[in-house]
Amino acid sequence: MRLTGAEITTLLLGNSIEGTWSGSHFRSYFSSDGTTLYQAQGEPPEQGHWRIVGDQYCSIADEGDACFNLYRDGQDLVWEDPRSGQRFASAVIQGKAVPW
After folding, report:
1. Across residues 30-45, what is the average pLDDT?
2. Which residues pair with 48 in a beta bridge?
3. What domains, with CATH codes, occur in the chain?
């Protein structure tokens, strides 16, 4: 089931996810002030920014936003890049789970 912007906000705000993206295991935390902490396993955390645009999650960067459709599949949170159709699953972790 594709999530709405309000559902994405409720699910991510103040929580973390854990998953694998492009072969790298990671965790990411979503703060209420719009910042994110992303940490690939074994690497130092990196700070970024996020926002909801319509019914998409968008990661904000100087080179441009990267926006994703989000879906629920049982307990998994599935991220879809609408440009490529590439999908990856993640698990939601309650609270701040970065750094590892």
Report:
1. 95
2. 36
3. 5-93 (2.40.128.370)
